[in-house]
Specification:
Elements: H1 12-36, E1 47-48, E2 58-64, H2 69-84, E3 89-95, H3 100-105, E4 113-118, E5 121-127, H4 132-143
Parallel strand pairs: 1-3, 2-3
Antiparallel strand pairs: 2-4, 4-5
């Protein structure tokens, strides 16, 4: 009875190699998705930041920097979300170069950053580049069914 059956055992370096491979693939795939995202120089549906927002309703406020490609991508997604929104939601933007005091007031540490206000109280925060699908999910979470 000559059995030539061998058993393969995983070793610690196999797991380390798999984790590194997973990390590299994740970085490559996410970078490709971000690069394919279009940019928008000036969004038509986003109003400039007013001195005070109304007491009622939900407001998405984008804190951006004029020369940032990441901010242009988030602005594009917010613009698409504003076009698809069917309820009373306000989309605003604020240039951090023109209004640095708001960055300190709302503890903005990086851009792009979207604050979500409901009845003048911050109820959510979106940091970094977020896809349109995820923005729709976030919008639906805070407003109910707001996107058709």
């Amino acid at each position: 009875m000559d059995n030539k059956f061998s058993v393969f055992y995983f070793k610690a370096w196999h797991f380390v190699l798999l984790i590194i491979l997973f990390f590299v693939l994740t970085c490559i795939i996410s970078e490709n998705k971000v690069q394919k995202m279009p940019t928008l120089e000036k969004a038509n549906n986003l109003a400039e930041w007013p001195d005070s927002i109304s007491n009622e309703g939900v407001h998405f406020v984008l804190f951006y920097e004029r020369n940032s490609d990441a901010c242009k991508k988030v602005r594009y997604n917010l613009n698409l979300l504003a076009e698809q929104t069917s309820t009373n939601v306000t989309f605003l933007e604020i240039d951090i170069d023109n209004y640095p005091e708001y960055c300190e007031k709302y503890n903005i540490s990086g851009i792009p950053n979207v604050l979500i206000f409901k009845n003048c109280t911050e109820c959510g925060r979106i940091m970094g580049i977020v896809s349109l699908e995820n923005m729709m999910l976030i919008c639906n979470r805070y407003i109910g069914k707001c996107v058709e």
